[in-house]
Amino acid sequence: MNGGEESGVAALAGPPQPPLEWKFSQVFGERTAGEEVQEVDIISAIEFDKTGDHLATGDRGGRVVLFERTDTKDHGHRRDLERMDYPISRHPEFRYKTEFQSHEPEFDYLKSLEIEEKINKIRWCQTANGALFLLSTNDKTIKFWKVQEKKVKKICDMNVDSSRAAGNGSIAGSSISTTQKPYLANGGCLDKSCSYLSNNFSFPPGGIPSLHLPVVASNETSLVAGCRRIYAHAHDYHINSISNNSDGETFISADDLRINLWNLEISNQSFNIVDVKPANMEDLTEVITSAEFHPTHCNMLAYSSSKGSVRLIDLRQSALCDTHSKLFEEQEAPGSRSFFTEIIASISDIKFGKDGRHILSRDYMTLKLWDINMDSGPVATFQVHEYLRPKLCDLYENDSIFDKFECCLSGNGMRVATGSYSNLFRVFGCAAGSTEATTLEASKNPMRRQVPTPSRPSRSLNSLTRAVRRGADSPGVDTNGNTFDFTTKLLHLAWHPSENSLACAAANSLYMYYA
């Protein structure tokens, strides 16, 4: 599936790099043949932390699962080793760390509305004292979590009879006299021969061998997740975004009509900084679809709309930032307007590049890369779903046209990625002169969709990556002769902050790749 020709101006300076060769790394939650996927197990959010050593996923059942990297603990960071020409024999590896129930299903009695537990977004916060902090949100409530290791304390070398110490647990390595004597709770002995209450008693030279000081042994640790704060009752509409500020103290939450600013330490108060709700709801023409803080400037943030525009606002201008400082939108070609124009123009996700100069936006058909210093149009446009344009009527009828695909940038800003149907995802190079446009499949053989197979009969995905297909959702055929299935879609993916490593969610399975 080539998905059309890439168009655009040179996005970033520097010579074009050869296309990356992606390799399978790991899969968590792989399905066996014929296994039915439970709705609550479908992954709905993915996020790397800033170091890339931890990865979090959220699912429709309200759970948050944490993974930690294991291949850097002994030898340091992979990028540092490459710089020192250190031989790297292992690819990036993660392991399951812990999981916890973040949200439960609720019911809003005032509005007679069910609030599902599905995790919409996860954002990592700054670590402190070895503990991990993160924000998670469903449609209405944001929670601030602390995950830390707690030591399990065990007391050993007690001066009590082991047969009478069942209440204190097992006693490891304690030296206890074999003679049965009546003992007190503090380890004392009622036998007059060993009574320490006598005024004539004197300690023998070298002390009493059978008397030991209790020792606290902390050999075991367990991970404990605790909810530190709950930020609730601030959104009338469904929360679609949360984003941390670079100041480490505040974050924003956005719904369809408002963006609120919070302080991490204060859960009962937020400030409304963007409000696009008109006085008369019949005049509503666009809604907020995504919002994100600038990675380094704590006063700047961007948000996207259902009309395909991205607005940059400066918190220093006014308390209520209804007027933007910059507007990024692409003018539609004359005569190209149709019934579906506004639907496919709606932006489902935006991401700032690590440098803070570029913004990546994803609408239904394309990826667009914007330079915040140039608001005349995108510096690059990558066609993702152009081959689906003749099928927009079918996509509208089965609601697939409203699917919200996420996007991500590599740490160096030289590549971008986004998901598609049939559990496929695309990786594009955005350096000057780059023609990189790779299509990969979320499976153990990610590159198998690269080879055109026109001579073979059309095939669907194997049972590991196929969901139950509804009758109306018949698959189509892409430009490589492979089938695509609207019921298997790769909506969520994340790029490692410093390495060419991708994490992708295909239903309840988490696939990881490296290059």
The helix-and-strand class reads mainly beta
Query: How many helices?
Result: 3
Strand content: 35-45%
Radius of gyration: 29 Å
Determine the fraction of residues in helical runs and give it as a percent range: under 10%
Got a strand count?
33
Outline the low-pLDDT stretches. Answer: 1-11, 165-179, 451-475
Strands of the largest sheet, in order across it?
1-24-23-22-21
Question: Kindly, what is the distance between the CA atoms of the first and last residues, rounded to a whole number of angstroms?
Answer: 20 Å
What overall geometry do the principal axes of the alpha carbons give?
A: globular
Sheet with the most strands, sense and barrel status: 5 strands, antiparallel
* Average pLDDT level: 82
